[in-house]
Amino acid sequence: MSAPTTQHTYTIKETAALTGLPASTLRYYESIGVIAPISRGASSKHRVYDEEDLDRLMWVACLAATGMSVGAMRQYVTNGQRGPAAAAEQIELLAEQERRLAVEAQHIAVRQRYVRLKIDYWQAVEAGDTARAERVSSEARTLADQLKRTTKQ
Amino acid sequence: MSAPTTQHTYTIKETAALTGLPASTLRYYESIGVIAPISRGASSKHRVYDEEDLDRLMWVACLAATGMSVGAMRQYVTNGQRGPAAAAEQIELLAEQERRLAVEAQHIAVRQRYVRLKIDYWQAVEAGDTARAERVSSEARTLADQLKRTTKQ
DNA sequence: CCTTTGACTTCAAGTACTTGAAGTTCCTAC
DNA sequence: GTAGGAACTTCAAGTACTTGAAGTCAAAGG
């Protein structure tokens, strides 16, 4: 709506909110060299993140979300630095990551279904609706069976 | 299709697949008392999980997925033991957990969008399609702006 | 100018898994 | 029955954060 470029720097708190990584983890990643040292405020020691830092951190957050070790992340990030020559290779890495994130998303989805079923169950119990409680229990069994099939493939 | 009750026991590997928790974590949770000791095979030392164990572990997995400490999980699990008297309380706990899982799911979703955008970008670059690359970059900026709005609320 | 409030800083210690080594058990196949 | 391989077991050591204490800095109000 207004200017295309809104703001160009972020505090650690804003960065944490945008990347989904806790501030403590942002500092930790910097301390062990997963990301390059972040520039500091002119008259303060506070970290000042720019758009490019945000971008790198989003990528790191994606990698961390699927259980990649910090050593491996360091590798990936430094590899990412060398120009656009390796576009195909980049795409391969990204595609792999997409798959891993999909698995992670499925785990969360299963847990959400589980919690919703449990809520339904207890609501039925509370309402004394035995029939509905049993229906929910049988749905729970269906969920378990689906899981068995999904994970067996 | 066949009998309503399929199988009543599971190995640690099956349990890991169904709950989404690594086998090492299942053993760890048992060792520190987050879950009660699992019964062992008649002639082996191997753990044998039953449906009830599975149910408890799904709940623990839900709690762990949102960063709950093992101390707190221990609390929640033992609380869950005392009968259906506290249905309302159970529902409250479950609803809270549902909210936390939703946040977690959003984090993952954002990361998926990020990775997909990056793939689009590199594919455009690879194809020499500068116009498309720029369009994708602008979409990335839109994503960032959306994040800012979402997290600020 | 001074104080307060809240967000930031570092560094050390704690927590939550994870991995590896070394050994046992299960299962299938001869 | 016994050989081989996969899957299990325990336990100790490592990794990846996380938390807490103690102090610094920025902005707002008196």
Q: Biggest interface in this structure?
A: A-B, 48 and 49 residues
* Separate helix tally of chain A: 6
Strand content range of chain A = under 5%
Cα-atom radius of gyration of chain A: 22 Å
CATH topology of the largest domain in chain A: Multidrug-efflux Transporter Regulator, Chain: A, Domain 2
Return the average pLDDT of chain A rounded to an integer: 84
What is the level-2 CATH architecture name of the largest domain in chain A?
Answer: Orthogonal Bundle
Task: Give the terminus-to-terminus CA distance of chain A.
Answer: 48 Å
Classified by CATH, the class of the largest domain in chain A is Mainly Alpha
Give the beta-strand count of chain A. 2
Order of helices and strands of chain A: EHHEHHHH
Spatial ordering of strands, largest sheet of chain A? 1-2
Unreliable segments of chain A (pLDDT under 50, ≥5 consecutive)? 1-6
Assembly category: homodimer
- Bulk shape of chain A: elongated
